[in-house]
Protein 1
Amino acid sequence: MSVMYNRVALIGLGLIASSMFWAIKRAGVAGEVTGYARSSGTRDVAREIGLCDRVFDTAADAVEGADLIVLCVPIGAMDATAAEISGTLKPGAVVTDVGSVKRAVITAVGPHVPDGVHFIPGHPLAGTEQSGPRSGFAELFDNRWCLLTPDGAEANEVKKLRTFWEALGSNVDEMDADHHDLVLAVTSHTPHLIAYTMVGVADDLSRVTDTEVVNFSAAGFRDFTRIAASDPTMWRDVFLNNKDATLEILGRFTEELFVLQRAIREGDGDHLHDYFTRTRAIRRGIIEAGQDTDVPNFGRNPVRK
Amino acid sequence: MSVMYNRVALIGLGLIASSMFWAIKRAGVAGEVTGYARSSGTRDVAREIGLCDRVFDTAADAVEGADLIVLCVPIGAMDATAAEISGTLKPGAVVTDVGSVKRAVITAVGPHVPDGVHFIPGHPLAGTEQSGPRSGFAELFDNRWCLLTPDGAEANEVKKLRTFWEALGSNVDEMDADHHDLVLAVTSHTPHLIAYTMVGVADDLSRVTDTEVVNFSAAGFRDFTRIAASDPTMWRDVFLNNKDATLEILGRFTEELFVLQRAIREGDGDHLHDYFTRTRAIRRGIIEAGQDTDVPNFGRNPVRK
């Protein structure tokens, strides 16, 4: 593929930015990739492992002359980061981000984007439970979705950014920022909160030891711990910045949980069986849509064919 | 390994029994394995794929002359199944089971076990989201735990059954039946109920389409759907038969969830960050105990090294 942006600046060098770097290099869609991280330790690691063609000590230096700027910092740091780079942005440049919440990013970043610079918020739905500059890999976005919430940004620039994400392996869709935040409250934010809660409960029980929880986790619990090992700062910011949608879905969740709890208490086996049968169908849909494999047991064991 | 039981009878031929068969053959610890399933369709499949050396049309015929009888039926079918085989059990034989709840199985099966037959309840903590006679594989129990709740059964026979499970790849531990049911409520039953609930909520929302839920599931939700795709009959019976412990842990869970919900509502980022940091430690414990791998993203993507 040919170069799409002469210079791409990655601001923040964690899992998503480092995966973007390797995916950009794999696709050959950028002339040069610059990078910046707030922590000098992260910048040192980036230089050591060749993450970014040039690593700068300030965000402003990293974005100077860049055609595409990708904000890869936690949601809570978006406002300050955007303020820092605002004066250095090149006219005609595109600013995008990878935050898990879109309305809050628009509110934080929008006011700092000068006239003549395009702002197209984005969110690649991809990740692992690992974080930091060493955690990235080029295949992270392959066959995953990237959602853009352009909200009136110039059509040609939106189209170009779509093609860029497709070159990194993604499928791309566009939607309204508020709808994005609701969809993600369902498919990501509430599941994470629930997983964190369940792991916290297990850790707190005095009648069941931590060793028992750990050793006997293969029967379901371990899959919650993987989700609940995600980056604490990122997730704090997600919940603080997608409060309304998360609380709405949490309300639905507890309502539904109480109905199932009553069915257990009253011994209503038909209700439970019907409910558990219905939820199987969604799983099939996810496998058919290529968003998971049907290899059993999470692919952790070899399978006899 | 040498033969430990001349004849092993597997009653019920789903995921666990079929995995036991292949693991028994791999280990060479049984002279012959007989099998029975209530459904003639399942028996046909078993005969077609060579699951069990001989498949019988009644449970009584399958257990006749057997030295080890393994009840692999849903908890709700334990009582009737035990009654069916009671008169055919050979003196000195060992009856065990693989049910996910132990107190209820003891209550259901115990009265049907004649004098001179040993009853040693068991529970291999292994499984996948798939079910049926074709879903088994020999490696299912490798490095997983099998819990026995012998409650006064003869020590020699308990020791022999331990060695049998070890030959199938398991680690083995013993505990009291009620404690087992509490531990499993934490590590398995409540996590499953929560996953089922979250998937049900997502399926029910009118403002988010099923297509959106499916396509955008990679950000956390898909891992809940895997758990929520488990066998509905098995899980109905688990909740009906481990009611007290599940309701106790559910109570703790909702209490904790409400505290986190309030922290979100009040914008208490410190509370959220502390909580999310604490839950990371358990994850590390599980990886160190060999109950999961640290391959990111569930091993679904190749990883750049």
Note: The longest helix of chain B spans residues 177-204.
Protein 2
Amino acid sequence: MTGTERRHAGRPRSERAGKAIVEATLDLLAEESGVAGVSIEAVAARAGVGKTTIYRRWPSKEALIVHALGAVKEPLPEPSGASAREDLTAIARRFEGDRHRRYSRCFWNVVGGAEKYPELYARYRQEVIEPRRDVIRKVIRRGVDSGELRPDLDVEVAMSLLLGSLTAKRPQETFPEGYADAVVDTLLRGIENAPQSRPEADEGRFSAR
Amino acid sequence: MTGTERRHAGRPRSERAGKAIVEATLDLLAEESGVAGVSIEAVAARAGVGKTTIYRRWPSKEALIVHALGAVKEPLPEPSGASAREDLTAIARRFEGDRHRRYSRCFWNVVGGAEKYPELYARYRQEVIEPRRDVIRKVIRRGVDSGELRPDLDVEVAMSLLLGSLTAKRPQETFPEGYADAVVDTLLRGIENAPQSRPEADEGRFSAR
């Protein structure tokens, strides 16, 4: 974050303009009118640039919004490949920190407006959300292949349990300390009690870390 | 649904008015302006009733909205107490059917507007959401007490995994066949492979059903 700011002073003019345009888009998108309030005109006025400067990079309002949303989401950490447990924990922790109150409104407004702006929503899914989900899918599939995860696992169901618990949070609420780790641990071990098997299973799990 | 409609013809006038008011509230709330578009005046006009008829039952716009949202959510099935697996599956299946496209916009608009209308959102949480979460908490706690679920379980984490996977769904998407059952089964068993323990654990699980 500070690194980014430090670099900022030395940025060329076109990069500064690009950043101002993205910020203006997010500001407008976070307002109550949401997608309806974002127009190339409004973004240009707010960013202090000409409309041509925007159209030179983004052919449409939809392209601009999707780009801005993608710029907000930090990329998921590159899976180390050491174990599914480690990789899923690293990913889950990223969601803990991925909460910027100002930006969460932007996402609500786009997802909540899916019915009214289906093409925008589809692009957002395809360009911002699916690549992130693919990272998680790959970690889970690799865990199945390595034998760490159950061979009969439904990858989509496993991903939905993990992602749902990390994204379906109440607005304005932060996760309790250690939440991401607890979610991954609970998902890995399951909630069912299996008294006969627990000691061996535990041993296997900890030695595998 | 047909049962409800059949009863409708015989309803007394005040009940019909109440229903019209609730419907008008949901219609307005589902529109893009969301909470901002709901006012006692607008609801009265749309429902074809006088403002007094509304104020007689609901002291404020917030009370009316929360009541209308509560009327949409079907109550969760009464837990049978037979097993956590059965009760959680019955609850999860209810979420499968709990998708009314028109109403989902209402919920998005209230949750997405949490920052702007914090009191409305808090009441909605307290009067509509928390009672449903309490049903799930009780099922999980009972499972821990009976020994079916792990004694060291974090109830909130387990509930968040279950509910997240059932509610953080993409808009306009229906669950695949058997999704609710798969979610509960995956959550109960966990996704980790524990080869030494699997056979005994399976036996225990199936005999416990």
Note: Residues 1-7, 196-209 of chain A have pLDDT under 50 and may be disordered.
